[in-house]
Amino acid sequence: MTCADVPALQDAGHLDLASIYRNIFGENLKPSRAEKTELFRKLNAFGIGAETSNRVDNLLVYGADDPAYKADYDELVVSDPVYGATAAFTAAQRTY
Length: 96
Fold this sequence. Notes:
- This protein starts with 5 loop residues before the first helix and ends with a helix.
- It has two domains: 3-45, no CATH class; 54-95, no CATH class.
- The chain has helices spanning 6-11, 20-24, 31-35, 38-45, 54-62, 70-78, 87-95.
- The protein is globular and about 45 Å long.
- Helices cover 53% and strands 0% of the residues.
- It is an all-alpha fold.
Protein backbone atom coordinates (compact mmCIF):
# COMPACT_ATOMS: atom_id res chain seq x y z
CA MET A 1 0.00 0.00 0.00
CA THR A 2 1.08 3.50 -0.76
CA CYS A 3 -0.36 6.73 0.55
CA ALA A 4 -2.15 7.16 -2.77
CA ASP A 5 -3.95 3.83 -2.23
CA VAL A 6 -5.57 4.86 1.06
CA PRO A 7 -8.61 6.78 -0.30
CA ALA A 8 -9.64 3.90 -2.57
CA LEU A 9 -9.26 1.38 0.26
CA GLN A 10 -11.33 3.55 2.55
CA ASP A 11 -14.00 4.11 -0.11
CA ALA A 12 -14.21 0.34 -0.65
CA GLY A 13 -14.72 -0.20 3.08
CA HIS A 14 -11.34 -1.88 3.58
CA LEU A 15 -10.22 0.33 6.44
CA ASP A 16 -8.23 -2.50 7.97
CA LEU A 17 -6.00 -2.55 4.89
CA ALA A 18 -5.50 1.21 5.09
CA SER A 19 -4.33 1.13 8.70
CA ILE A 20 -1.24 3.21 9.28
CA TYR A 21 -0.45 1.00 12.25
CA ARG A 22 -0.26 -2.13 10.11
CA ASN A 23 1.96 -0.39 7.62
CA ILE A 24 4.35 0.97 10.23
CA PHE A 25 5.27 -2.63 11.01
CA GLY A 26 5.53 -3.71 7.37
CA GLU A 27 2.33 -5.71 7.15
CA ASN A 28 1.67 -4.12 3.78
CA LEU A 29 4.74 -5.91 2.42
CA LYS A 30 5.31 -9.53 1.48
CA PRO A 31 7.14 -11.25 4.37
CA SER A 32 10.19 -11.84 2.17
CA ARG A 33 10.45 -8.13 1.39
CA ALA A 34 9.92 -7.07 5.00
CA GLU A 35 12.70 -9.45 6.08
CA LYS A 36 15.08 -7.70 3.66
CA THR A 37 14.32 -4.28 5.16
CA GLU A 38 16.63 -3.41 8.04
CA LEU A 39 14.01 -1.48 10.01
CA PHE A 40 11.49 -4.33 9.97
CA ARG A 41 14.20 -6.89 10.84
CA LYS A 42 15.12 -4.82 13.90
CA LEU A 43 11.51 -4.31 14.98
CA ASN A 44 10.87 -8.03 14.52
CA ALA A 45 13.94 -8.93 16.58
CA PHE A 46 12.37 -7.13 19.54
CA GLY A 47 8.88 -8.49 18.84
CA ILE A 48 7.59 -4.98 18.19
CA GLY A 49 4.37 -5.06 16.20
CA ALA A 50 3.95 -8.79 16.64
CA GLU A 51 2.89 -9.05 20.25
CA THR A 52 -0.07 -7.75 22.16
CA SER A 53 -0.97 -7.95 25.77
CA ASN A 54 -3.87 -9.92 27.16
CA ARG A 55 -5.38 -6.65 28.36
CA VAL A 56 -5.43 -5.25 24.82
CA ASP A 57 -6.79 -8.51 23.41
CA ASN A 58 -9.48 -8.65 26.08
CA LEU A 59 -10.39 -5.01 25.49
CA LEU A 60 -10.87 -5.57 21.76
CA VAL A 61 -12.65 -8.91 21.99
CA TYR A 62 -14.75 -8.55 25.14
CA GLY A 63 -14.76 -4.80 25.80
CA ALA A 64 -18.26 -4.15 24.51
CA ASP A 65 -19.76 -6.69 26.91
CA ASP A 66 -17.38 -6.86 29.89
CA PRO A 67 -18.03 -4.22 32.58
CA ALA A 68 -14.35 -4.30 33.55
CA TYR A 69 -13.37 -3.04 30.07
CA LYS A 70 -16.46 -1.06 29.07
CA ALA A 71 -15.20 2.44 29.96
CA ASP A 72 -11.85 1.93 28.19
CA TYR A 73 -13.58 0.27 25.23
CA ASP A 74 -15.93 3.23 24.80
CA GLU A 75 -13.09 5.73 25.10
CA LEU A 76 -10.54 3.98 22.89
CA VAL A 77 -12.54 1.88 20.42
CA VAL A 78 -16.08 3.20 20.09
CA SER A 79 -14.93 6.82 19.84
CA ASP A 80 -12.54 6.12 16.94
CA PRO A 81 -14.56 6.55 13.72
CA VAL A 82 -11.84 5.19 11.41
CA TYR A 83 -10.09 2.29 13.14
CA GLY A 84 -12.50 1.76 16.03
CA ALA A 85 -15.82 0.02 16.34
CA THR A 86 -16.84 0.35 12.71
CA ALA A 87 -19.56 -1.83 11.24
CA ALA A 88 -16.91 -4.18 9.84
CA PHE A 89 -15.08 -4.40 13.18
CA THR A 90 -18.29 -5.03 15.10
CA ALA A 91 -19.32 -7.79 12.67
CA ALA A 92 -15.92 -9.45 12.93
CA GLN A 93 -16.03 -9.13 16.70
CA ARG A 94 -19.41 -10.84 16.87
CA THR A 95 -18.22 -13.60 14.56
CA TYR A 96 -15.18 -14.18 16.73
